[in-house]
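FYI - complex with zinc ion, inputs then prediction.
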Amino acid sequence: MDLIVETVDTCPFCGGALELAEDTTFVWFGCRRCMRYVKREKREIVRRFVNYRERRFNWSGMITELYQLYTRL
Ligand SMILES: [Zn+2]
């Protein structure tokens, strides 16, 4: 995993800050303390959350989905 940023969301399992990371293919979302991560293909995220016509990236939509995925682990 390359770029890693902390999000404002906290881990429902330990209360730590959830992280967003990326490598060449995937975006990862999860908790370093719990060592739990979910991932989505970047290609899919771009297709679903980037609106090129309006030049918008639906960041909160992406985070919401990743968070839901994470809590179902
Ligand atoms: Zn955790």
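The chain is about 30% helix and 40% strand. The longest strand covers residues 4-10.
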